[in-house]
Design brief:
CATH architecture of one domain in chain B: 2-Layer Sandwich
Low-confidence stretches of chain A: 1-11, 164-190
Helix content of chain B: 10-25%
Order of helices and strands of chain A: HEHEHEHEHH
Oligomer: heterodimer
Low-confidence stretches of chain B: none
CATH class of one domain in chain A: Alpha Beta
Number of strands of chain A: 4
Mean pLDDT of chain A: 76
Number of helices of chain B: 4
Mean pLDDT of chain B: 86
CATH architecture of one domain in chain A: 3-Layer(aba) Sandwich
Largest sheet of chain A: 4 strands, parallel
Strand content of chain A: 5-15%
Strand order of the largest sheet of chain A: 1-2-3-4
Structural class of chain B: alpha/beta
Structural class of chain A: alpha/beta
CATH superfamily of one domain in chain B: NADH:ubiquinone oxidoreductase Nqo5 subunit
Shape of chain A: globular
Largest sheet of chain B: 5 strands, mixed
CATH class of one domain in chain B: Alpha Beta
CATH topology of one domain in chain A: Rossmann fold
Order of helices and strands of chain B: HEEHEEEEHEH
Strand content of chain B: 25-35%
Distance between the termini of chain A: 29 Å
């Protein structure tokens, strides 16, 4: 069994097993909040639909309240004027939470290089998975979702806390954790990077 | 098609017309600024004209020319089915960069004039609600002016660890004269 980063060193076997079980449950029951601002939302509907069927991964239930969701999917262009709204939505989500940037506009600003558009949603909030494409194909979205599920299982989400040694962590301690946590969320492991010349299917 | 509109204008208000022209069926008239409201009222109410719909109010920035800005009104007459463009040429200096608002003649001018103010910094004197419409109140400058720096960003919010904004934004804030709509 692989130790999870951050708390694996001296942790006993049983809490680690519990952690893995919780991570397994969380990765198959993601409740999504689609922050849909632009045309990529059409492709998200296609991903939700029966042909590509995101329900196979347990993420088929969009909650249109951020307080009931744990996966924020940023679908479309984020403007500078809209950025505080996105930050507010993110802050209202309960932890642990994950963020997916859907399409190039949410990832980097895309071809908009002007006064109005934020160059990537990660300027505002941490992002776990970037899905490129203008818009991305549903297969790419499912690929990104599976990459995120692997991260959840490996306990590498940007807001995942150790529950192994909860005896010493009080609720007050958890509340004092900073809302914006960078952690490992901005970097990809070598095997997660797109290989040269694209990925062969 | 709309040549008769120009004919009526030149007959009724010869002193207000600077120039008329026609290009591939698009008729336009350049009007003196101090007679703009008079001409616009005539265009709206004259029985031969009846331009009862204002399609758009916008602005063109001819950077390097004098006068620099040109405010364009696109008018259409639903009863007579003719269309004409009315233009006003104004200068760049803050005390000269204004036109009288026509928002009290056509309701549709309200948001168009707010957009022209927001994007180009042309003041519309007498406008009932002279605020920005697309950008936020904290925004400095007018982004569609051709001398607005292309890389300047004015974020409302950033993560503490995000890269710092280009210093052009700072220079912009120092050089701008209109931080807010007064």
């Amino acid at each position: 069994m692989a130790t999870t980063p951050g708390h694996g060193g001296g942790a006993s076997y049983v809490p680690t097993l519990l952690q893995e079980a919780v991570n397994w449950a969380q990765k198959y029951s993601l409740f999504t909040y689609p922050f849909a601002t632009a045309c990529c939302a059409m492709e998200f509907m296609s991903t939700m639909g029966p042909k590509y069927d995101i329900a196979r991964f347990g993420a088929e239930f969009p909650r249109f309240s951020a307080r009931q969701a744990d996966l924020l999917i940023i679908i479309g262009t984020i403007n500078e004027r809209q950025a505080p709204v996105l930050r507010r939505v993110y802050d209202q989500m309960p932890e642990p939470k994950w963020v997916m940037a859907f399409g190039v506009c949410a990832s980097t600003g895309g071809f908009y290089q002007n006064y109005a558009v934020t160059p990537g949603a990660d300027q505002i909030i941490p992002v776990d998975v970037y899905v490129p494409g203008c818009p991305p194909r549903p297969e790419q979205v499912l690929d990104g979702l599976m990459a995120l599920m692997n991260r959840i299982q490996e306990h590498r989400g940007h807001s995942q806390q150790a529950i192994g040694n909860t005896a010493n962590i009080t609720i007050a301690d958890r509340r004092r954790l900073p809302v914006l946590q960078d952690g490992t969320s901005m970097t990809l492991l070598p095997e997660e990077r797109m290989p040269e010349g694209g990925r062969v299917r | 098609m709309a040549q008769r509109v120009l004919d009526v204008l030149q007959r009724e208000r010869p002193a207000a017309i600077v120039e008329v022209g026609s290009y591939v069926g698009d008729e336009m008239a350049v009007v003196e600024r101090d007679q703009l409201l008079d001409v616009m009222t005539l265009l709206r109410d004259h029985p031969e004209l009846k331009m009862n719909m204002l399609s758009d109010v916008t602005c063109v920035d001819y950077l390097g020319q004098e006068p620099r800005f040109e405010v364009v009104y696109i008018l259409y007459s639903i009863p007579h089915k003719h269309r004409v463009r009315v233009k006003v040429r104004i200068g760049e200096a803050p005390e000269d960069c204004w036109v009288p608002a026509v928002a009290n003649l056509w309701y549709s001018a309200n948001w168009g004039e707010r957009e022209a103010w927001d994007m180009y910094g042309v003041r519309f004197e007498g406008h009932p609600d002279p605020r920005r419409i697309l950008m936020y109140e904290e925004f400095v400058g007018h982004p569609l002016r051709k001398d607005y720096p292309q890389n300047a960003r004015q974020p409302l919010i950033r993560r503490p660890d995000a890269p710092t904004t280009d210093d052009q934004t700072t220079r912009l804030a120092e050089s701008s004269h209109d931080r807010r709509v007064s």
